[in-house]
Amino acid sequence: MLFNTTEFFVFFAIVLAVFYAAPRAVRRLILLVASYVFYLSWNYKFVVLLFGLTVVDFGAAIAIERAPASRKKLFLLISLAANLGMLGFFKYYNFFADNLAQLLRYPPHSWTYSIILPLGISFHTFQSISYVVDVYRGEQAAIRSPIDYALYISFFPQLVAGPIVRAREFFSDLNRWRHPSQEEVLRGVMLIVLGLTKKMAFADQFAQIADSYFQNLSVHPGGWAAWSGVIAFAMQIFFDFSGYTDMAIGMALLLGFHFPVNFRRPYLAFSITDFWHRWHMSLSRWLRDYLYIPLGGNRHGRLMTYRNLMLTMLLGGLWHGASWNFVIWGGYHGGLLSIERMMGRREFEKKPPIWLYPVRALITFALVCVGWVFFRAATFADSRYVLSQLVHGGKQMQALLPRWLVYMTLVSLAIAAIEEKFEWTERLSRGPAWAYATFMIVLLLTIEMIGVTEKALPFVYFQF
Amino acid sequence: MASLNDLKIAFKSLVRALFTLILTVCGFWAVEFALFHTDAYYTILRHDSSTGSVETYVRNELKRTRTNPRQILTIGDSRMGFLPRYANELETGYEFGSIALGGATPRDWYYMLRGADPDANRYSAIVIAMDDYEDVEIEEDQSVRAADLYYLIGRLKYSDIPYFARSYQHDPTLQWAAVRGVVLKGLIYKRDFQDFLLHPTSRIQIANAARRDSHQWYYDYVGPNQSLEGVVVDFDKRAVTVPPGFSEAQKAAYTYRFLAPRPPWRGDRTAYMHKWLGKIYERYRGSKTRVIFLHLPRGPFVRPDQPVFNAHSSVRELAVQPGVILLPEHLFDSIERPGLFIDQMHMNGPGCAEFSRMLGKQVSHTLDAL
To answer: Is the Cβ pair A437, B23 closer than 8 Å?
Structure first.
């Protein structure tokens, strides 16, 4: 049940109606049942896995809280082993088995199995880990209600692709639940429509260009084609993922929950450091709090800081998928972050003067695009080919982006720049009704006239 | 039971939100209506797209200057090689027009006729071109033809939704697509709109020119001169021979058309033709307008395995109704020659000219004799 399908909206409408019509005492149960129904609609087999991990982490957290200090770590390790073990098996087993076979000169796929990746496993295991670690650190009380905890892990708006919500944020909303205000309802609806627009009118249009380029590299030689394909993918992944996130945040708002912002106009970043403050922010925050800082952060000198940055980003890359390309993508960003640190942290965190901003943003965007090559290309050899085309692909004028998509890119860039300055859409739900309605009408017409509605294309991050 | 109280609180706090959302929905509907349920979008519509062709033909017919009160309108698909100019040059006392369109089906014909003749009183006769009088099965099941939605989107109104959607009775997905498409016409126009975005300036220029001059373009069209002279179909040896200059693809197309077995009888065609020809007849029943069916020339070569007589075919059953006329089945047999066809199905320029003159004369005589 994809977010961009009629079936999902029927499902969501039913959930909303039942949720608000039911007595408060059973609303959590209703959301839990709805979340499991949502997950069942994808693949009923993996519900057992989701349920099993929920039981283990629920029990481990209570055990950690109750256990004497000397034994707390044991329960933490049990929980981590369960979560990382499942994630490792389902997501990385074949990758490591294949590489080991190659290393030992066995035929490829000697030890691999046909494993289907359970939907959303990367996200719900990270949420579980953050919860159990927080309980271990004493920053979060263990949840005593199995329904509450199961709902935290399986809450359908963010189950499959985030944003990664911290336990204390979620339970704060859950325990002090109140009706969404007028502004929240309007904002929720607007975010759902905005997310749909990003997905159907922008991401799915750019996807056609990106797919046609990356799936047939030899058919599209030349630098223009390469830049078209890579920029199309950069646009696709941003609009796809931020569209999904907008919808998730909007749906949660309508149900009375407040998810953290996950994207803040990342392609306006003036440095790679700034980019990671704007892109998939809930993952960046998770990696910082549960990986980078525990590794030592920047507390042990420059070299250790660079090492920690590299390790964090390498693992962040590997989190996205079991392939060397993702590792390289992570390493590439880790390297760039380290270089920026070497050149002076403040320089890359402080907003540059207005005259320098466009140049810095353009350089950052180009660097990010180079990284996307590894993210999107099927193999390392393909990545090398695309990079070579980007740099010296010649002047063959075979640009794949049609002119109207270029205009759409420029319009969305202009909107982002205005939004960066004035945050109009942030305030729209508090503004006059006519302004809100006008904006929504434009979004709806954009979906109608530009959106890919012939078939519902899956979200990119669902594969992670 | 806190839920009722909760609902009251929620409702009170949501009044403004609801007002804003209702305003949004109404505003969206108003813009959608203004764009796609009026003439607004037609000003940039590509005139040779499926939607654009229907609109151009129907609107040209509506604004055609009439010099004679005795008007005749012909309709059909691409095989209807009727060029009104040739029939009008005969000065039979009738003035001919045509909205026959390549790819148009009987379902399309009904809505096109409704558009060209809103009050069902403009014509002395409507002439409908038929491939045959027996409802011979074709491979495509036209009752579930998705393209009809694209052909007709400019013609369909909200009130058409129930009947039009139900006409896709064998396919619930298409029924839903039809409902959604008529309610939100932009979903159907979007291909055209995205094409418009590629070259907006030239599109506007072409659309303006088509609105202004396309009637004359179509009226002056004489058709191509190429023919199938030299092509031989040996039905005994089941072989097609083509002279130099013809491609293998052309030969394969001829072979398929003349030698491949006919699709088996399913009854789909009869049901479909009954439905839509019946609906066209209903539109003119009791009016001064005659409904005339003609049997098109079968092709440059005539298969020996001709369909058997079907007394219950759609046109034969309609023929007993008052105001319905079936032109003689073999009226155009003389045109069934390779020299008058451009391919296995369509008449060439000389073929169209001869056919148009013959049809003009025959229809005039038939009507005069009544």
So the answer is: yes
Predicted TM-score (pTM) above 0.90: no
In chain B, the number of structural domains is 1
> Cβ–Cβ of B28/A434 closer than 8 Å?
no
Q: List the beta bridge partners of residue B129.
A: B294
Taking 60 as the threshold, does the pLDDT of residue A80 lie above it?
yes
Longest C-alpha distance within chain B, in Å? 88
Q: Name residue, tokens 């209703």.
A: A30
> Of all residues in chain B, what percent carry a pLDDT higher than 90?
77
Calpha distance B304→B176 (Å, rounded): 43
Which 8-state DSSP code applies to residue A198?
Answer: I
A410 touches chain B (CB under 8 A): no
Asked if A424 and A436 count as a contact pair (C-beta separation under 8 A), the reply is: no
Of B7, B13, B184, the CB nearest to A20: B7
What residues contact A411, with CB distance under 8 A and at least 6 apart? none
Strands B232-234 and B239-241: antiparallel
Name the residue among B1, B10, B32 with its Cβ closest to that of A23: B1
Supply φ then ψ for residue B326, to 5 degrees: -105, 120
DSSP secondary-structure letter at B170?
T
Which is it for strands B290-295 and B125-130: parallel, antiparallel or unpaired?
parallel
Instruction: Give me the residue spans of the domains in chain A.
Output: 6-177, 183-270+351-463
How far is A293 from A306, CA to CA, in rounded Å? 13
Query: Measured between alpha carbons, how far is B370 from B367 in angstroms, rounded to an integer?
Result: 5
Interchain CB distance below 8 Å, B187 and A403: no
Cα distance from A445 to chain B (closest Cα, Å)? 8
Q: B175 CA to chain A: closest CA distance, Å? A: 15
What does A289-311 look like in DSSP terms, one character per residue? IIIITTTTTTTTHHHHHHHHHHH
Q: pLDDT tens, A148-171?
A: 999 999 999 988 777 888 898 999
Burial class (CB in 10 A: 0-12, 13-18, 19+), B296: buried
Q: Range of B332's domain?
A: 49-368
Q: Is A435 on the interface with B (CB under 8 A)?
A: no
Q: What is the mean pLDDT of chain A?
A: 87
Indicate yes or no: CB of B6 within 8 angstroms of CB of A451. Answer: no
Confidence of residue B117 (pLDDT cuts 50, 70, 90): very high
Indicate which residues of A carry an active-site annotation: 320
The ipTM, to two decimals, is 0.80
- Given pLDDT bands bounded at 50, 70 and 90, which one contains residue A122? confident
Whole-number Cα distances in Å, A9 to A12, A22, A120, A247: 5, 20, 20, 11
Which residues 130-189 on chain B approach chain A with CB closer than 8 angstroms? 184, 186-187, 189
> Among the residues of A45-139, which ranges form H helices?
46-66, 69-87, 93-103, 121-137
- Flag whether B23 is in a domain: no
Residues A379, A380, A384, A387, CA torsion sign: positive
Q: Residues of A with CB below 8 A from B14's CB?
A: 182, 185
Chain B positions in Cβ-Cβ contact with residue A208 (cut-off 8 Å): none
Cα angle for residues B40, B217, B73 (degrees, 5° grid)? 80
pLDDT at position B284 is 94
Q: Is B194 on the interface with A (CB under 8 A)?
A: yes
Q: Does B190 touch chain A (CB under 8 A)?
A: yes
User: What are the tokens at A418?
Assistant: 């205005």
